From TrEMBL:
InterPro entries: AB_hydrolase, AB_hydrolase_1, AB_hydrolase_fold. This is Pimeloyl-ACP methyl ester carboxylesterase. Residues 1-27 form the signal peptide. Residues 58-308 form the AB hydrolase-1 domain. The keyword Zinc does not apply. It comes from Pseudomonas cuatrocienegasensis. Keywords: Signal.
């Protein structure tokens, strides 16, 4: 009898091992980032998105930062996330990339609005970060995805905070990378960096590419020497896909018009990982520390030398802290499903 039981469990073990190996290979095959970009209409907003991986896997929504397009999530990072057993969804926020642009927005005096922001006065914006969180939630509704994990970077992390507040029962985990609470008194970036960030008008394609390469270099880590040719290539790919400087300015206004999110963070009860670099020139490290301090039960991981870009040298350190966290919550999801 004991021998029969042993044989049975050995067969079960072999079957499960073979199944897992097969699923792993299948996941690797299905994790190509070369998938068509689709579009979904959400009222007045049309979002462009990609859906990578198997629809039966837990979903991970990636939310990009200011002016960033879905292609600014590095393909190799997206593939690694998918290979961990996630269906990865990345999209262009409104006003950038292949999503629709707000053509009927009023004229923007960014210098004037930035001055009002520094003086603590109200800032006018055509839409807010919470509206953009509503876009992301609408995308998941349109895809028929009820529960999902969220990973947001920079402005995308701010949008993700609102998303978790809007639908806490649907967000299974929250990963916030190089982002902020928007509270007054936190360290500010240098005026020179802000000027580069706001400088989007250009008389020609060549000038626009040089400006973007300058910005990418300024957002990089002092520990890494950037190759200028590579920066120009990255700028070229993004420019040729879509170039909408007015849209980026409107997104920046949405950030400036946003009050402190401390009260919002204090009421969040979603499992949260906060990741920040010690060399971030745009949102210095205390921004990440402050976010983590106001989300009950959150984890904080600081990455030495990481700045405000997904530079090659820091992709593995980032994945080393993000993947174990996501896997823990993915496994919890799978156990609940069983």
């Amino acid at each position: 009898m004991g021998f029969c039981v042993l044989v049975f469990f050995m067969r079960v073990f072999i079957f499960i091992a073979a199944l897992l190996c097969g699923l792993s290979a299948f996941a690797a095959d299905s994790c190509t980032t070369e998938v068509p970009t689709a579009k979904v209409v959400l009222g007045d907003v049309q979002l462009a998105y990609q859906r990578i991986g198997r629809e039966s896997d837990p979903s991970l929504l990636l939310v990009m930062g200011l002016g960033g397009q879905l292609i600014h999530w590095p393909d190799e990072v997206v593939a690694r996330l998918c290979e961990q057993g996630f269906q990865v969804i990345r999209f262009d926020n409104r006003d950038v990339g292949l999503s629709n642009w707000t053509h009927e927005a009023p004229a923007i005096n960014l210098t004037y609005e930035a001055l009002r922001y520094r003086l603590g006065l109200s800032v006018s914006a055509p839409y807010g970060l919470r509206d953009m969180a509503g876009d992301a939630l609408g995308l998941m509704d349109a895809l028929g995805i009820q529960q999902f994990h969220v990973l947001g970077a920079s402005m995308g992390g701010m949008i993700a905070q609102h998303l978790a507040d809007l639908a806490p029962e649907r967000v299974q985990s929250l990963t916030l990378v190089m982002t902020s609470s928007g509270a007054q008194g936190l360290p500010a970036p240098s005026p020179a960096l802000l000027a580069l960030l706001a400088k989007r008008e250009a008389p020609s394609r060549e000038v626009a590419l040089e400006q973007q390469a300058d910005l990418l270099a300024a957002l990089g880590s002092p520990q890494v020497r950037d190759d200028r040719g590579l920066l120009l290539h990255q700028a070229q790919v993004a420019y040729d896909r879509a170039f909408n400087p007015e849209g980026v300015q409107r997104q920046l206004l949405a950030i400036l018009a946003e009050p402190s999110r401390v009260e919002l963070l204090n009421r969040l009860r979603v499992p949260t990982l906060v990741v920040h670099g010690t060399a971030d020139p745009l949102l210095p490290v205390m921004h990440g520390v402050h976010v983590a301090a106001h989300i009950r039960g959150s984890e904080l991981k600081l990455i030495p030398g990481l700045a405000h870009r997904f530079q090659d040298a820091f992709k593995e350190p980032l994945l080393a802290v993000v993947l174990p966290y996501l896997n823990t919550h993915r496994e919890g999801h799978m156990q609940a499903a069983l």
